[in-house]
What we know:
Oligomer: single chain
Radius of gyration: 36 Å
Structural class: alpha+beta
Largest sheet: 5 strands, antiparallel
Shape: elongated
Amino acid sequence: MKSWSNKHKQATAAAPANQPAEGGAPYLSDNFARNLDSMQSELGGSPDLKVRRIQIGGERRIEAAAIHLSGLADTVAVNEFVIGSLLGNTEDLFPDDTDDMVTARASDQAAQETSHGDGAASGTAAPAEASINATAESAANSAAKSAPMFTAEPGTGRSPLPQLILNRALEIGDAVLQEEWKDIMLAVLSGDTVILLEGYRTAIICETRGGEQRSVSEPSSQLVVRGPKDGFVESVATNISLIRRRIKSPKLRLEYMKIGTETQTHVALMYMKGIAGEDLIREVRERLRKITLDEVLESGFIEELIQDKTFTPFPTIYNSERPDVAAGNLLEGRVVIIVDGTPFVLILPAVFTQFFQSAEDYSQRFDIAIMMRVIRYVSFLVLILGPSVYLALTTYHYEMIPTTLLINLLSQRENVPFPAFVEVLLMETAFEILREAGVRMPRVIGQTVSVVGALILGTAVVEAGIITPIMVIVVALTGIASFAIPAYNMAIAGRLIRFAFLIMASMFGFYGITLGLIVLVAHMNSLRTFGIPYLSPFVPLSVKGQKDTILRLPLWLMGPRKSPQQMRAELPEYMQLTTGYDEQLSPLILKNNTAARQQAEGEQHETDE
């Protein structure tokens, strides 16, 4: 028996056809071979493009192809739920009245042709009518055998067949119809399987993304002694599921978007409806949509483009690879951005105190959590001020050092050829080199190199008379203090600021340190993170907000959590806008605040009149 696919080609040859992407049009063609050739040529004949050509249907068969990229698609899902469904569920797929409809349509056509040839006169005799009916029936049977199973809609090339396969044959959870060429290519490049049908301009996209990926494991950073041990991975779908396991609320909202003209990276935006501020959600969404990059390979690309102020050493967006941290911040009214291909999610807005909090603070008793937080803040002060205070004391302010210690320090410096400032720079630079080497080397020997290298280097420089022993102690204490800060990016900010204070202390002593602190606090006070003051709840001062900053009160005293938007709304009117506030806001929030302020001023003016 002849294949019905050849007859179907002839039946649809006269229909207008859109060209595929390489022909300049953005839609599929009804030419099956041309679609396959266009897809293979657009991918440069890539060997990992797998095309499985099959024939589906029962007595009348149509050619189809299942297309996917090996390594990106789940092979089991492709074989069992896509190809297996097409081969096993399409023989009895079509409804019983399909042949009747086709036969009736062919019978009508044959009857019209016969009547036009013989029956123009109105007085035709009964034998002639019988002859016409017999001829029409014979023509209808012949036409029914060669007619297509589903006739395309005039001028569109669309047919119920792809929809019927989608609804009644495919045994896969997520599948959609698609006609645009760019969306079909993006689906293939994302790991989905595309089904093309001979003679049809509609493709079926099946969700088969999978392949090899890292399993959920303990985070490599932000480690805890007590608490959950699972961490985010490089799959955006897995990361979303880890958050949903912790927040089983219909208020948890999820939005998808693609960023990157070349990479087309999947980015997920998550927030709690009714808890997160609407202006915050709108502003985050707007900033993400304005990103115009060719590639987004990590969440750091997005972080750098959406933050309020670029020229600052302080991080204004928090990142974490812990699902419990992301869930807790969502419940506090913040927004979480998940980027496909990285285990680090972005949490915003982020204030200064947030970088000194650890997930373990809420797993331990409140008194233990308070002690650990105080140690972290003290460690940050030691990190940025330790070497500069030592330099100021030994260079300008000898009178502040106890006499016995001063004599000991002076005796150590007798054989040292360099001034104290050069000593500090040498040791700090050497320590940073050892730290970077320990991070970049293989994990098995990285820590050993850092520890052994520091011991050997410190002992060698002291015995050689290049550095004083007390300087080695100060630099080592500073380095250890940097490891006590939970957020790695905040520790890096402290290491950068440390060098600025060293320069100020070498020039002006404690006066330079005091001047540097004033500039530092003023700079931090000018920072905004999506409209939220960076030093809140200290500046502007909020007494209620002190329950979970340096202190961590018992949970029964903290009460319900309040989002930054709610805390800001509770401030007095004269404290909601501080000096330099408007200059740091993004255009959208600035526009809203300006309009609200102008409206309030107009109403006040009318009241005064």
